[in-house]
Design goal:
CATH architecture: 3-Layer(aba) Sandwich
Strand content: 15-25%
Bound molecules: flavin mononucleotide
Distance between the termini: 6 Å
Structural class: alpha/beta
Number of domains: 1
Radius of gyration: 15 Å
């Protein structure tokens, strides 16, 4: 069975356990690489043409505006065909209760029929927010696993729970 991870992750300033800190590598990227290492997966990194601000407060404002407009920011690269994959893990940070709109840009026109979709979100307190409901509105014909929420600040320590969740949910 073939696995694909579609993920967005942003390095730079972020909110970590109540303080603003600069991260060299984004939390979700740590998890994406963990998934690849443990089950074997192709990684598709979602990258916007116009990068989000590195400053936390600026990024917060940009993200809120995009959410309010239900925006679909343009990406540097798009997937066109995911038919080779059985399991698709969709991973991203919680931004105002859901994924960054760039994730929706990446998945909106893909055919998920017959796939197993595994939602994963890194966060600072909101858990999965409403990302599962948002995915289900956009993705038709797929089977959904119950999503996994990972506390972003603990991403590097989450390997045990991530691997357990994958093993329980991927179609082998
Ligand atoms: C624009 C923005 C909005 C955020 N909104 C939330 C939120 O609504 N709830 C929450 O728990 N964390 C929120 N966070 C924190 C991130 O979800 C968390 O730090 C995440 O692990 C970052 O992942 P990344 O490093 O892969 O981008 C927000 C962070 C940013 C930059």
């Amino acid at each position: 069975m073939k696995n694909l991870v579609i993920y967005y992750s942003r390095s730079g300033e972020n909110y970590v356990n109540g303080a603003i800190r600069s991260l060299a590598k984004g939390n979700t990227e740590i998890i994406a690489e963990m998934i690849q290492k443990n089950i074997g997966a192709d990684l598709f990194r979602v990258e916007t043409v116009k990068p989000y601000a590195a400053g936390y407060m600026d990024c917060i404002r940009e993200a809120q505006k995009e959410l309010d407009n239900d925006a679909r920011p343009q990406l540097k690269e798009y997937l066109s065909d995911i038919s080779a994959y059985d399991n698709v893990i969709i991973a991203g940070p919680c931004w105002w209760g859901t994924y960054p709109m760039a994730i929706f840009s990446a998945i909106e026109n893909l055919d998920f029929t017959g796939k197993k979709v595994l939602p994963l979100m890194t966060h600072e307190g909101s858990g999965l927010g409403h990302c599962e409901a948002d995915l289900k509105k956009m993705i038709q014909g797929a089977e959904f696993a119950k999503g996994l929420a990972v506390h972003g600040a603990d991403a590097a320590k989450a390997e045990g729970s991530v691997v357990r969740w994958l093993r329980q949910n991927i179609n082998e």
